[in-house]
Amino acid sequence: MSNRFVRAGLAPLRGGRRSLAMVATVAMVAVCAVGSAGGVAAAEEQPATTTAIKPPAELRVGISPNYPPIAFEEDGRIVGVEADLAEKLGKELPTKVTLVKTDWDELWPSLREGKIDVVMSGVSITERRGEKVRFTDPYLRVGQMVLVRKKDMSELNDPAAMNSAKRKIGVEKNTTGEAYARRHLDTATIVSFDSVDAGVAAVRSGAVDAFLHDAPTVWRVVGRPPKEDPELIGIYKPLTDEYLAWAVRKDEAMTLGVLLDAKIDEWTKNGELQAVIDRWIPVTKVSK
């Protein structure tokens, strides 16, 4: 087998809204954009046409660029999946798009206070967040994964092995990974870090046994042939079934929210959304 590196945690969305199981196997996992067919906005919110909705003169995009390859900084610029999609919105709505660099914890207050118009920052849809914002249809399906040292792979290959009193599990503060760990790994010691880099460094040093985060994070760290990380590896068994989407204020549900849904649906159907995702999250398939 020439390519044995397998990616998991992202899968195509098929069928009705919110009624789908995670499609992820050890043999092959697809990375796919998802549109309104798998959306979470209520169908009754959708008007017959979006032509009557005037795009805003400016779209202030709140983004926390610390989540490669979804959103991060490179050579002084914010780049990644979200940055590319924001640029496409600017050209096609059309509108002036301004990326507003915002700390993760400040995204929601900034949206609520009107400092930004939309959050595009690798945000997972959760019920709690949905009580305060209107999520667009999801554009990407992801799952939480585990990063471990290669020498510990045999011991931690079964995710259940993490939930042990002798294990220390690293997470990033205020993420769905931390929520999962505190809910399901109640026997292990959970260690919270301020950033992904700090958590990864803790795995390398042996300060924690594993680091739990979104699939794109694990892929970025591990790399792929011929530039694989010499020490770390991901356990490609998704622990959760999550969706990434954008968020607007609830009072923008019938205007900006509908416009964004329409773009996600359009890009899904014409393949442009998949092209952006493929640029930043290339898939390595198993050779038969």
What does this 3D model show about the protein?
The protein is α/β, with parallel strands linked by helices. It folds into two domains: 36-142 and 242-280, 3-Layer(aba) Sandwich (D-Maltodextrin-Binding Protein, domain 2); 144-235, D-Maltodextrin-Binding Protein, domain 2. It contains nine helices and 14 strands. Strands 1, 5, 6, 7, 8 and 14 form a six-stranded mixed β-sheet that branches. Strands 11-10-12-9-13 form a five-stranded mixed β-sheet, with helices on both faces. The protein has a three-stranded antiparallel β-sheet with strand order 2-3-4. The radius of gyration is 19 Å and the shape is elongated. Residues 1-33, 35-44 and 283-288 have low confidence and may be disordered.
Give the low-pLDDT segments. 1-33, 35-44, 283-288
What fraction of residues sit in β-strands? 15-25%
Number of strands: 14
Arithmetic mean pLDDT: 82
Task: Tally the structural domains.
Answer: 2
The largest β sheet comes out as: 6 strands, mixed
Structural class: alpha/beta
Helix content: 25-40%
How are the elements arranged and paired?
Elements lengths: L57 E6 L2 E2 L3 E4 L2 E3 L1 H12 L3 E6 L5 H6 L5 E7 L2 H4 L3 E2 L4 E3 L1 E6 L3 H4 L11 E5 L3 H9 L4 E5 L2 H10 L4 E5 H8 L9 E4 L6 E7 L7 H15 L1 H9 L8
Parallel strand pairs: 1-5, 1-6, 10-11, 10-12
Antiparallel strand pairs: 2-3, 3-4, 6-14, 7-14, 8-14, 9-12, 9-13
